[in-house]
Task: structure prediction
Amino acid sequence: MKHLAQMLLGLIIATHGFIGASLRAEDLTCLTENERKQAVLYSHLQQEAYAALDRRREVYEELETPEQIRAYQQRLRDFFVKQLGGFPERTTLNAKTVGTIKADGYRIEKVIYDSQPHHRITANFYLPDGDGPFPGVIVSSGHSRTAKAADYNQRFGIMMAKHGMAALCFDPIGQGERSQILNSEGENQFSGTTTEHFLVGVGSILVGRSTARYRVWDAMRSIDYLCSRPEINPERIGMTGCSGGGTLTSYTMALDDRVKCAAPSCYLTTFRHLIETIGPQDAEQNVFGQIVFGLDHPDYVLMRAPKPTLISSTTGDYFSIEGAWDNYRQAKRIYTRLGFSERVDLVEAEGKHGVRPQALATIAHWMQRWLLDRDAPIPAEELETRPPSELLCTESGQVLSLPGEQSVFDLNAAYAVQLASKRKKLWETESREAMTARVREVVGVRSDDKLSPPKWEDKGRVQREEYHIDKLVLRTDSGIPLPGLTFHPVSPDDDAYLYLHDEGKLGDSGAGGPIEELVDDGYAVVSVDLRGQGETSSGKRDDLLGDWKTYSLGYLLGQSLIGKRVEDVLAAGHFVAYYQKKKDSPRAVHLVGVGQAGIVALHAAAMNPKLFASVTLRDTPRDWSSVVEETVPAGQFDSTVHSALEVYDLPDLVRLAGEEKVRYE
Result:
């Protein structure tokens, strides 16, 4: 009976490939269900984040005097700006008004001005009737496709104008008239605006910048525009915005002293509550290394203390309301120590994510109190809005159609060219050993003497026709096991292969696939789940953005997925080289990397060239400078390394690994 069952199983595998793949996937599992739960990389990063946040809280609790608080503020501000990549030179605004709409008690001007030369901002300027000068409030849009013209953003502008304050609502990059990725018809290629922000993040990260850098600078330039208008009192500037607009308000109010009064909405919580619930969000909401440095959500408020700040939240928001209250309490204590407890407050409105009428009225009241010195109640009301098409500033509806317009991709690519020139000089003047050390530092890979050989465990065997598969687990000091498979011919050659794939140990492992071809040629092949892959992953990898959630949490901790996985490859390479071998006679290990896993393979070979006899890379980028230029760098996000192009590009790794060893296919 047992023999018959095996025959039937073989028939199913042969005639129904998709069923066979499923069965083999189950057969090739190396970890128990409990081990898999404990091995998920994201969970390990969560624990690292919680420990870092605990350390940050200890520092916060030591803030007692105004001098200590000022030093804390300056330290965080300096770090924040540095991690964003600094800001560009302030240039001429070249502002122009392209249209005006007369409304009841105010007008709406349609304006365009420069964020950077040939990188324009489209905005609607709500100006009350009268002589002025008026306070000016920046309205930062959430992740709405119509941006400044979205109904809730219009209501922000109308509410301010109806109560004696001007408002400037501008389009962020990737939204409204400032989409950075258009199709051949000149329309948005992606419906999701966060998708654009992620894709902008790819090149920004590689050159040591951030999507947030461009967002914050746009906001600062919008303040410049407000201050340039004679109708505006430059000493009375406020800022508000919901969701992604709350994010940008939080960033800008922390960094720009001109923001006298701020009211970020539906964003501020704490990182602990965020990580426990929805996790990190799109690229602009994650600053490299901020959690490990000690920059938490409450610090966006603390960095501006004691300037007036209202935290606007909703009870059912996915940005935790419990975290919002924790944020508020931390701020209230610091404001009180500075003698201005009345300058920070929180409003909690019923409902889910978004600005409800009462919350909008409360925000307007807050602005009125601190910008107009008037404390009269402002009632909630329903405000009529206009069709978005009436508020467009360009004829085509997109600034990319304007002569000479540069996208963020263009700006990053131009900067990458500057970095290439600096990098060339660096590699010409520094020794090979020094540059290897620099690469290790940037990527986050420890030196060889800090890496211990892995221990391995046998997890059983699966028989295939003419060869067998040994299941194993490699254990390293990372605390996360590396499930692996050895595809073993009957009489293997002494040389062996280590095979890396974006799908982990099961990638290319099917019958008749690339791994089986190597086995047919007489080679043993070891494939592994690198950290965050296969059995240690938290879900399916997105084709466009990769494992962006795990990557982003690591990014907040100042870590790259590449760095972790390179150490995994070095451990696996050591296992393959020295399995049943003496220390002075390791076997030759041939390294194969497919897709983004090829980037990991190349880094590993560059860090330890002696460990690998050859390196074969398939469907792998040849350089990161070209990736920076791409408007749709599919699958690249979670393979980026912050500021890598300041020190090296992938061809530099080829030279470290040995040009004669590396082959692209």
Observations:
- The chain is about 40% helix and 20% strand.
- Residues 1-26 have pLDDT under 50 and may be disordered.
- Residues 408-429 form the longest helix (22 residues).
- The domain at 82-394 is CATH 3.40.50.1820 (Rossmann fold).
